[in-house]
Amino acid sequence: MPKRLPSDPPVLPGLTYMRPLGSGGFADVFLYAQDMPRRQVAVKVLPSGIHDAELLRMFNAEADILAHLSAHPSIVTVYQAGISADGRPYIVMEYCPGSLAQRYRRERLPLDEVLTIAVKMASAVETAHRAGLVHRDIKPSNILITTFGSPVLADFGISASLAPRSGEEVLAMSVPWSAPEVIAEQTAGTVASEVWGLGATVYSLLAGHSPFERQEPGQNARDQLRPRILRASFPPMRRPDVPAPVLEALAAAMARDPRDRFPSALAFAQALRDVQHALGFPPTPLEVAVEEWVPGDRSVDFADAATRGPQISSVPHSSRRRASAPVPLTARDEDTDISAPQTAPPRRVWPWLVVGAVVVVAAVLVVWALVTGGAG
Hints:
This protein is of the alpha+beta class. The protein has nine helices and ten strands. Helix 3 packs antiparallel against helix 5, helix 5 runs antiparallel to helix 7 and helix 7 packs antiparallel against helix 8. The longest helix has 26 residues. The chain is elongated, with a radius of gyration of 32 Å.
């Protein structure tokens, strides 16, 4: 499938386009400068001319899911969503300048850092599960790094509900980090498959490659990886500073049979915290939503393919007309169209008539005084 060229950035109110950040199969991400409050934001937008109901459904669901989950400290924050003047849905999100997309391939990540990231991501995934949602795309490139150096889980574009689904399920996967049952198309996503994805992601961060990659070039195409994942057991890791307890936790998370894995993302996080304690590392706090939290799938309609949100009715443009006199401050309201002709307020004439009359009377009195004085 040929790579799609990125679309043009849309004109958005209160936002100034700066540069592209990335382009995926179905959406583009751009960096904008927000005017009020002043900050940099990432804007995810569908390309021009997209009318696919399935893409619109997924885009709407991602906006709603992020709105519900982004209060979590390890999930990317969403600010707003809407429709641009040219009819393209967009989501305004927290700008994260860093990512683990390629860093783990270029350098050996410290063990303590990887364990911290793993516990934080497991906490985020557990929170999504408690909201009745599955991410379905856990992998290193979807772990972003905020301006404060904290890892956050991003890209909920192919998320789905954990509730039983009627009709045909939409399958979605990232092959190197997808569980065997997802590769075999036996499920669209479960808690067990998410635990496998977490384990495969942590394995990748430690090993410098995904679990079933081979070092020989030309051996890691999608069709070559799929059968290895389906039939292989936990692959060995050639990294001497990774102790046995870490490998045992990863092996349990990536067991071929879903019933042999950790029962939840929280259980995986707790096992990693036990490893941190045994190795003398400070245990990373568990950040999981409380039971009273309203499940997110109640507010997410996964069948909604309508274009929702505020839509800009016009696009600002420069004018070649001569600039008119400044508009009085009282007329420069945010809801006032300052490009429309302004009607000047009526002038108050009577104060000037009074002043003129007083001046005339004073002049007459002065002349009279001079005349009568001279006659005397």
